[in-house]
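Dear colleague,

Thank you for sharing your sequence with our group. We've completed the structure prediction you requested, and as agreed, I am returning the results in plain text so they can be pasted directly into your records. Please verify that the sequence below matches your submission; if there's any discrepancy, let me know and we will rerun it promptly.
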Amino acid sequence: MFELKVREEERDGFIYKIMDMDLGDKKEEIYIKLPISEKQYLTDLYDPYVVFNIFKMMSIGGECRIRGKVSKSLLDNLEMFVGCYKVWLPKQCKDITIIADEEVDEPKKLNNDAVMCFSGGLDSVATLYRHCNGLAGRNNRNIKKLLAISGNRGVIENVEEVHEVRGGRIKKMVSDMGLDVTFVDTNYYETDTIFSKLETFLVVYVAIMMLYQDTYNNLIIASDQFIYYDSINVDGRGSNPIVNKLLQSNRFRLITDGEFITRIDKINTIKNWKLAIYNMLACDAPLTKDNKCCGTCNKCLFTKLDLIFSDANADLNLIYENTSTDLNNYEIIGDNYIFYEEILYYDKYKKKVLDDESRKKIKYLIEKNRHPEYVKKINDLEKSNVFNLLTIFNFKLFAINNNTGNITITIFGIKITIKK
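Please find the predicted structure tokens below.
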């Protein structure tokens, strides 16, 4: 059983859109918190809340009752969205029938104004720059609203980190483009789920942007995947070129910007915007006490390589706590191999940036992290409490012996070896 009702509360200068869900055996409450000044822009339709909870509905299955008005064209697309995930994640996703109190779908001519999610990372920085400078081709839109969203499931997406730490950098970059940013919070992280953050993050961001669909008919999300057959990943990543096209209705268009360019291309696009080069937040860890990116998390590792191979001439010492780019330290990269595939693509088809040794090392990393034997070891480690606790603090945990295949975990100088 699934039933969704939405109510609204105003307090302390904020408006809360509260989703009350009856799941049969329990009830859940999720809110979206916005400044009260945003009230005039928000839709009365239930469209955003249906998208927000689509994975919750798939995990339960059966009839899903929505106690409000929903766009018919959105429900048509969501039926195909669900179909994709039933194929990709058959153990988690069940068949559902969404039944709204009322289905509406008046024809609408879309304007060129846009709302965009802005995290301050490389993808969103490049997208903002492209649209503000007319570089996005026929899909170029007038960005009128930027949203910085906290409350998703990542360790860097808590309210304090987004508002107080990263917020300073975000404000600095968007103001340089002549724009403001609105901070939006949700308690989504408090809810139970059987899905990973990578699978569900997109619907949360799109749903929150959909609150503005009546005012800004274009929703822009920066692509985090380059469309290349060796690097694209659909079953484990919620943002991909198949389902993204299904998260829209006749009332708005979702534009996934930057799907056709690599991360190196994106850096080259913004290379003259030095304020962004030195303030972008391409790091999966909280900023250090010196206000730098850690330099050791997976995102920092491949972004450092992207910066070196680009034309930006960036000083890594001003960006990272750990500036090392020694590929011998890049042993376990997990599904981040897709970003290293981008580097190989750039090297082969755009500009030679790799020497033979580096090219072989990157190919070796990709193959090793794709190999089922290593994937199983990585998954087993990720399930352990010790691994989960220590990865939050971004310690360098792994080094794999290339000859034996053994995994060595180094914690505070103490080495633990897991034999092959």
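Summary note from our side: The chain has 13 helices and 13 strands.

Kind regards,
the structure core
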